[in-house]
Amino acid sequence: MRFERTEPFKADYQRLSEDEREKFRTAARAFNAACDHFVETKDPSSWPGNLRVKAVASAPGIFEMTWNFSGPDGRATWEWVTVIDTDGRHWPAVRWRRLGAHRIFREP
Asked: Which domain holds residue 69?
């Protein structure tokens, strides 16, 4: 799955501990595989239950993914976008927006 990262996401990532970064990277691998499956099938059951992928109620078009439950709380917000490669082909992609605890929902 292709992806982009917003500047707030990059800053959020830098604030994570190395352990939190590793937990996010592990979850992101499973998330990417599920994204590929979802794009191919449009099947909402593509999302692994342990990632709790769902829409953010207060932000149309923005979704959340939970990557850690055991503390500290780990969540990421994202949206679907389209990227264009050098050959002019359009591809679905994920734009990672925010990363961290519940505070990210103030500005998802």
From this structure: 2-99
